[in-house]
Amino acid sequence: MAANGDLIELKLDTLGHGGEAIGRYRGLVVFVPEGIPGEKVRVKIKERKKNYARGEIKEILTPAPERKEPECEVFGLCGGCHLQQMDYSLQLLHKQKIVKDTLERIGGFEEVRVNEVIGADHPWIYRNKAQFPLGSDNEGRVITGFYQKGTHQVVPHRQCVIQHPLINRIARKTISILNNYDLTVYDEKTHTGLLRHLVVRVGICTNQALLIFVTRDKKFKELQEIARKLMTEIPELKGVLQNINPRRTNVIMGDKTLLIKGNDYYIDYIGSIRYAISPHSFFQVNTLQTERLYNTVRKYAGLSGQETVVDAYCGAGSIGIYLAGEARTVYGIEVVGSAIEDAERNAALNGINNCIFIKGKVEDKLPELVDKKKIKPDVIIFDPPRKGLDKETMATVLEVLPPKIVYVSCNPATLARDLKEIKACYDINEVQPVDLFPQTYHVECVVKLESNV
After folding, report:
1. Quick check: is 355 catalytic?
2. Residue tagged active-site, from 78, 81, 410, 445
3. Which one GO biological process term can you cite for this protein (predicted)?
4. Which among 149, 157, 202, 242 has the fewest CB atoms less than 10 Å away?
């Protein structure tokens, strides 16, 4: 049986949800990063557990026809991308299979139609948001990039191939300016140092940007001067802010954000709808593909102008506002107060007056909306975080039984779990994957559900 350090040969059979290819060696499941199903490879065992192992490709004995040279020079070291080794058309096929296999394995859905993935016309330079950790090199200079796989060690990188070019330019210029000052970088082990992260957000349709410095404390006397220099040299930069995160945590941003110079928002579009995006706004990272995602939601909702719609986990109101022109009333529910403020601003920005936004947890406010305010939704749109729906929300759904549900999910596993809970009461007509995250294993899904009771 294979042990750590052993070299083995194996055939790769499938692609796991984490983007690793999977093969079997004498009954042992072996996960292989950067592999492609169908390939025969020579692998070195790096981690051996009781029921599985992880290996590193040392030689590709039979390469897949779809194998390609990665675009990024640090692919395989940086943990940001997982699938650059394969042609994009093959990525889409595997994402469809991952969704289908997950629905069958967890939810027991063998007959549900999983459509072909709606791919991106431009599978590179698509991201509108980057969260760059900061580190220091051997000479004490500030560097940025992304974390190495499985670590918090920064891999220096100046040109991420999935980030919008303006994001890369802002990051490079910012690091250049920071190194003209005597500044310290945050150390997770000692909880010392000032600079934690750079967060850059860009309007793909408007070429406007925000830059947020995430720091351990407020004391950053040089920031006014740095912000002035950056906004002078980068005219697309509409605002510079400081976010203060004093906690020992992997959560990037803290609760307090200060405007240093310019505006605290930028404008972007999805279709014809304008959105003001602030530092904490939830906004999908692939703007162009989000229009396709929302058009799928619109299609599945099938609104006639007379419906009451609940947009659960509404964030900055992006889905509800996108659909508002085809509904009677839209109720958006979101726990983050600043997101509710963004949603109200976005509705006003588009002259929309049939959206009502409610601050609170979905599991609390949805029952309250139904039981106390006697509002019976015709359509509920769920776009929850990766953990999916909680038990209280599920109980409300099974009590109210809205005629239609449109479920938007970024996690096929929790999607399958939640659908299994309500499949006795709903026909699950089809699942439409949309690729918002080319070069990674992630995939977004939209599911159409219609009540059968």
Report:
1. no
2. 410
3. rRNA base methylation
4. 149
